[in-house]
Amino acid sequence: MATLGGRLADRFDARVIASVGLTLQAVAYVLYDTLLTLTTPFYYITIIASISGIGAAMFFAANGKMVMFEVPREMYGIASGANRTEPSVT
Length: 90
Known about the structure:
mainly alpha
């Protein structure tokens, strides 16, 4: 899905694609909160996880594009590495 998210970010406004992705993730979290119980059918969980995954793919692809668009060409390696670095929790 990240490939599709990247193509959408290239074709349309990346800010809109990122916003839609975050909205899908928020919808998935609300669905988890309201529907998830010990007896929730597995296919509900699969559908909700898919919504979350599609949202994440759309957000991260569009966000990466926006970050790289703002960086001078000679700084691409540094910006890409910094964008993909996750802070460690100690």
